[in-house]
Automatic annotation (TrEMBL), chain A:
Occurrences of domain N-acetyltransferase (ranges): 19-171
Any GO MF annotation of the entry: protein-N-terminal amino-acid acetyltransferase activity
Protein name: N-terminal acetyltransferase C complex catalytic subunit
Entry keyword Transport: no
Family: Belongs to the acetyltransferase family. MAK3 subfamily.
Domain of life: Eukaryota
Organism of origin: Triangularia verruculosa
Phylogenetic classification of the source organism: Eukaryota, Fungi, Dikarya, Ascomycota, Pezizomycotina
GO CC entries: NatC complex
PANTHER family: N-ALPHA-ACETYLTRANSFERASE 30
UniProtKB/TrEMBL annotation, chain B:
Database matches in InterPro entries: LSM_dom_sf (IPR010920), LSMD1_Sm (IPR034110), Sm_dom_euk/arc (IPR001163), snRNP_SmB/NAA38-like (IPR050914)
Domain Sm: 40-127
PANTHER family: N-ALPHA-ACETYLTRANSFERASE 38, NATC AUXILIARY SUBUNIT, SMALL NUCLEAR RIBONUCLEOPROTEIN-ASSOCIATED PROTEIN B AND N
Protein name listed in UniProt: Sm domain-containing protein
Tree of life domain: Eukaryota
Lineage: Eukaryota, Fungi, Dikarya, Ascomycota, Pezizomycotina
GO CC terms of this entry: NatC complex
Name of a matching Pfam family: LSM
From TrEMBL, chain C:
Highest taxon of source: Eukaryota
Presence of keyword Cytoplasm: yes
Sequence similarity: Belongs to the MAK10 family.
Positions of the NAA35-like N-terminal domain: 26-187
Keywords: Cytoplasm
Start and end residues of each NAA35-like TPR repeats domain: 324-699
Gene Ontology, cellular component aspect: NatC complex
Annotated localization: Cytoplasm
Organism encoding this protein: Triangularia verruculosa
Pfam families the UniProt entry points to: Mak10, TPR_NAA35
UniProt-recorded name of the protein: MAK10 subunit
Length: 190, 155, 742
């Protein structure tokens, strides 16, 4: 075939950048569009504000240098997890999306690695996320990096699908806080 | 990411949890020109009930929680009000006495909870105050105040 | 708009826009008490993905569908059959807004809210009875029955322990589901419709008349079943309407071809008028075949769940509960028991804190204690309660036992409650329960000490040395209550691990380690059962001669139980050992390759995996070094690993074959014997399949010689979903011979 598809030349040419507030006008609509297309759950503008305003430094963009278009994005947060004592610093990967034509070239893996590196540099104890049970590629991606499934969440999403909670521990568990770690606030038996 | 929309149904409207500044007559206020004035003005509105009209003719009634430079409004405990459709109007005209020249109909309303009304669709913003708490000195403004209409009147 | 009197509104559009315009990009004016995190649940207006009220240009909210148009019998059957699909989707956990409330007839019937039954109709104008389309009468009666069923079921589920949105959505979107109407009046309407159908059977033809009749009959029976379920006695009579439904359902399914679909009578547009904090969602499409299977299962489960009322003893109750939940795996070909059935189970078990409608918690607890650790014991003698002298030893026994019951009752019942939940929740709930049982055990130990002083128990050397001379060996006491608590705790810990397999929590290269840990837990349990048996035998021997017939019977029953329990523990121990060795070998041979995991270490992952067990004092969580050494068995040759696996599988198989021959009573599975036996045979199949895997790998290794790895062995190993295997707790890999040159 004569035709080389767009992504054959990429992704090594892609540019990876950290999100900054000045990029909002240029990239926020594209970020929303990309994620809205990929994720089963719709989110309002303020969900993006919530993450980007406080943790813009944990958001990375993959950009096609030819036309500066958005190819992929990861959005995260990092905060003390209060139900643990002493509180652990928990990173959370909220959203990850890559344009379908660019998939299979490690763009998502690069974005996740950048986010984890950044969280590690900020002293995170662990990184967690949820992913749809049916999303095999996503689970494989995270598990290749070292994440483990810690629990299954029945009918977690609006479409009726279940999810796995994935955990990547970055520092050893403090034995004294092990009890708290076992008990998650969401799981307290009613 | 965790699922949104846990759909808690409110037992009561609890919109005075946050701070709510003094009641005032908004018509008497000048249009804010400086940034401190502007933020102050917006702060005053927090936790008050707003009625926000949208380009499609609906109106959203809820407690004001947040805005940004694009006027994307966050409203809590929101109800949606929708004017009657043409078909409903026609039905009402035939059943009601048309001699008076007008028909009275309920706006249909429903509870939506927490909403974001994007600035690009906002056509009108109104703030509610209790008449009894308004300074009586607001003379001359009465004609501009609109009595809340539970009914819409179509002439 | 609420409270319009005395409220004035000011137009601030211009000022607001001007003020907001001065904000920087991304800058917010926000109520301090409002967290942006909450906005995850906000609906964005005018976004068609989130705003159900958002209309496309030129689109109207009005339904185009005319509910007054005449319907043919075939169309009524078509609508009813479509309603079955939606009803089942609702039982499965989808909201009414995506299921039954998408039907135009039901919508019109419920909105505006009817105040009298006559108005509960999709045609509100009064039409003389004889002038009504008889098919409208039939459809209305059916819908009345359906909606009333939904109201009862919704109400029942709300009363029990369930997880909103996860198990079930009770939201009715401000629609009243005929709450205020009398069931008898609705029954009358259905009966009238059934008579009407009968009277016009010549006109519409017998076949169609019968088909309509079956559908109405099902509704009558369903309402009857619901009505009866509040009683908790006489399971035979309770099961009658369920049996009837089961039979009628077959007739309904067989007559489905008579239905004529009316897709226009269903619309997501109705969501636009529902009070809902949810984004618009599509109508759930459940196929006729799926719907048929799920309803069939519902009726069978409805009959089976009543068996719980035939109480025999607490152990078979637990086995019953466990098997009831056993079929609940998300994957299963068989549909899982619906939350409504689980609700019935819960209410049969616990309603008003009276177990099964007739037993006190004390009764069930004492029965369990008597079975497991205290057969014919004076600790459980009700006569103790009659002693009023505070210094009498029996008074003290009664007092201490009551303290223990109060301490343990809640934890004990919580196990049953946990097992009424969905599988994911069971596992997570048990992670909390073991912390609780850890303290129950500690408290029980204290009470054990006080009790043994009261009866002046003589200590014994355990385990028995066989020597006459026992000097230098510390004798110990029977410690019945803490043994009992420990036994439950160990079982809970094993369940957590086993549910981990079932829910596909563990990565392939974790299987060797997790099966090793399971075998370690089962080993502790086997030893504990041995210890309990030893002390029970001692007491039986001491009391021989003086024992009454009832006491003898209690000892025998306990002996049977402990015999069965020790088999159960030993089988788990052997099987888990075999699996661990097999997976260790597969890992070593490069047939299971761990992912690169650049951000993790083996030790950190062990921390994550063992979090729930980290705080348990007994058995103490093995250190990472012990875990790794026991799993890898680095000093043992691969052939030996496989050989050990083979031997353990043989042992397990022998054990399972003995167990499979146990009767209903011997296996403590009265009321659920078939399900129990199904589990045992599933385990036997898993053992056999694992045996084949071990054999194939051994043969290849012999052919190719030590040191051959991965592809060169000419083997490919796959690990499927646990629930698709022979038994969900035993993940057996598939082995495929491949051409290694390829």
């Amino acid at each position: 075939m004569e035709q080389t598809s767009h992504h054959d030349r990429l992704p090594r040419e892609l540019k990876y950048i950290q999100y900054e507030h000045r990029l909002e006008t240029q990239y926020l609509p594209a970020i929303r569009a990309l994620i809205s297309k990929d994720l089963s759950e719709p989110y309002s503008i303020y969900v993006y504000r919530y993450f980007l305003y406080q943790w813009g430094h944990l958001c990375y963009l993959a950009i096609d240098p030819n036309d500066s278009s958005l190819v992929g994005v990861i959005i995260c947060k990092l905060e003390a997890h209060a139900s643990h004592s002493p509180p652990t610093l928990r990173g959370y990967i909220a959203m990850l999306a890559v344009q379908s034509t660019y998939r299979g070239h490690g763009v998502a893996t690069t974005l996740v690695k950048m986010a984890i590196d950044s969280m590690k540099a900020r002293n995170a104890d662990e990184v967690v996320l949820e992913t749809e049970e049916t999303n095999i590629p996503a689970m494989r991606l995270y598990e290749r990096l070292g994440f483990l499934r810690s629990k299954k969440l029945h009918r977690y999403y609006l479409n009726g699908n279940s999810a796995y909670r994935l955990v990547l521990l970055l520092k050893p568990v403090d034995p004294d806080s092990a009890a708290d770690l076992a008990l998650d606030e969401a799981d307290i038996y009613r | 990411m965790q699922p949104p929309f846990p759909s808690p149904f409110p037992l009561s409207r609890n919109n005075h949890r946050g701070r709510s500044k003094a009641i005032m007559n908004y018509d008497a206020l000048p249009t804010p020109s400086s940034k401190p004035e502007a933020t102050d003005f917006l702060q005053t509105l927090l936790n008050k009930n707003l009625r926000v009209g949208t380009t499609d003719g609906r109106m959203f009634w809820g407690s004001f929680k947040c805005t940004d430079s694009d006027c994307n409004l966050v409203l809590q405990h929101t109800y949606e009000y929708r004017p009657p459709s043409l078909a409903q109007l026609e039905a009402a005209t035939t059943t009601q006495n048309p001699q008076k020249g007008k028909v009275v109909m309920d706006m249909t309303s429903r509870y939506l909870g927490l909403v974001v009304v994007p600035g690009q669709y906002v056509t009108k913003i109104q703030v509610e105050e209790f008449a009894s708490q308004l300074k009586s000195s607001a003379q001359g403004q009465q004609q501009q105040q609109q009595q809340i209409a539970k009914k819409v009147e179509i002439s | 708009m609420g409270g319009s009197e005395g409220i004035v509104a000011f137009d601030i559009t211009k000022k607001f826009r001007a003020a907001a315009g001065t904000l920087e990009l991304g800058e917010l004016v926000k109520d301090d008490f409002f967290s942006l995190f909450e906005s995850v649940g906000a609906l964005e207006i005018m976004d068609p993905k989130m705003d159900s009220g958002c209309l496309a240009p030129g689109e109207s909210l009005d339904e185009d569908y005319d509910v007054t148009r005449p319907l043919s019998p075939g169309e009524v059957i078509g609508i009813i059959d479509q309603l079955f699909c939606l009803e089942m989707a609702w039982y499965q956990g989808y909201p009414l807004s995506q299921t039954l409330l998408t039907n135009v007839y039901i919508d019109r019937m419920l909105e505006p809210e009817p105040l009298i039954l006559q108005d509960a109709d999709f045609i509100r104008e009064r039409i003389a009875k004889e002038q009504r389309d008889p098919m409208h009468v039939v459809l209305r009666a059916y819908c009345l029955g359906l909606v009333k069923c939904c109201w009862y079921i919704n109400d029942r589920i709300k009363f029990e322990h369930y997880y909103e949105e996860e198990d079930f959505v009770t939201n009715t979107y401000h629609r009243s589901l005929l709450d205020s109407f009398d069931l008898n009046d609705i029954n009358d309407e259905i009966m009238a419709a059934r008579r009407l159908v009968h009277s016009i059977r010549h006109r519409i033809g017998n076949e169609l008349a019968q088909a309509l009749g079956f559908r109405l009959e099902l509704r009558t029976a369903f309402l009857r079943a619901i009505e009866l379920s509040v009683m908790r006695s006489n399971p035979e009579s309770l099961s009658l309407p369920w049996t009837q439904m089961k039979a009628v359902w077959e007739m309904i399914y067989q007559s489905r071809h008579l239905g004529q679909p009316v897709p226009e009578a269903f619309s997501t547009k109705i969501q636009r008028r529902l009070a809902s904090t949810m984004p618009p969602r599509p109508i759930v499409k459940l196929s006729t075949e799926e719907t048929y299977k799920h309803f069939k299962k519902l009726f069978v489960d409805g009959i089976n769940v009543l068996n719980v009322l035939n109480y025999h003893d607490s152990q078979s109750l637990l086995v019953l509960t466990y098997h009831q939940n056993f079929v609940m795996t998300f994957q299963s070909q068989k549909p899982q028991p619906l939350v409504y059935i689980r609700t019935l189970l819960q209410s049969f078990l616990f309603k008003d804190m009276i177990i099964l409608g007739k037993l006190s918690i004390r009764h069930v607890l004492d029965d369990d204690l008597s079975l497991v650790v205290l057969p014919a014991s004076k600790f459980l003698d009700p006569a103790n309660d009659l002693v009023e002298a505070p210094h009498h030893p029996r008074y003290a026994l009664a007092h201490q036992m009551e303290l223990f019951r109060q301490r343990a009752a809640q934890s004990y019942l919580d196990i049953f409650r946990a097992f009424c939940q969905n599988r994911c929740r069971i596992r997570r709930t048990l992670c909390h329960s073991i912390q609780d049982w850890e303290t129950v055990q500690v408290d029980a130990e204290e009470i054990d000490q006080l009790l043994r002083l009261q009866i002046d128990e003589k200590p014994h050397v355990y385990p028995p040395t066989g020597d006459e001379d026992t000097s230098g060996v510390e004798p110990t006491y029977s410690l019945p209550l803490s043994s009992w608590a420990y036994l439950y705790k160990l079982r809970l810990m094993e369940w957590i691990v086993q549910l981990g397999f079932e829910l596909d929590i563990y990565a392939p290269d974790e299987l060797a380690g997790m099966y090793w840990y399971l075998s370690d837990l089962a080993r502790h349990r086997a030893r504990l059962v041995d210890r309990i048996s030893y002390f029970t035998k001692l007491r039986a021997a001491e009391e021989k001669g003086g024992a009454t017939a009832a006491q003898e019977a209690a000892f025998i029953r306990s002996k049977h139980y402990l015999y069965q329990a020790s088999f159960d523990a030993a089988i788990t121990w052997e099987m888990a050992d075999a699996m661990s060795n097999m997976y260790a070998a597969l890992g070593r041979l490069g047939l299971i390759v761990p992912p690169p995991r650049p951000y993790s270490t083996d030790e950190l992952r062990y921390d994550v995996r063992m979090k729930p067990f980290g705080t348990i004092g007994l058995p103490e969580l093995p250190s990472w070094e012990v875990y790794r050494a026991s799993t890898d068995r680095a000093q043992v040759e691969t052939e030996k690993l496989l050989e050990d696996a083979r031997l353990s599988l043989e042992q397990a198989q022998r054990g399972l074959e003995v167990v499979a021959r146990m009767s209903e009573k011997e296996s403590f599975s009265v009321g659920c014997y078939e399900r129990w036996l199904g589990g045992v045979t599933g385990q036997i199949r898993a053992v056999e399949k694992a045996g084949v895997v071990v054999e194939v790998v051994m043969r290849k290794l012999e052919e190719k010689g030590e040191g051959t790895k991965g592809k060169e062995l000419g083997l490919k190993v796959g690990i499927g979903k646990a629930a698709e295997g022979e038994h969900e707790w035993w993940v057996v890999p598939t082995v495929e011979e491949i051409d290694q040159r390829a």
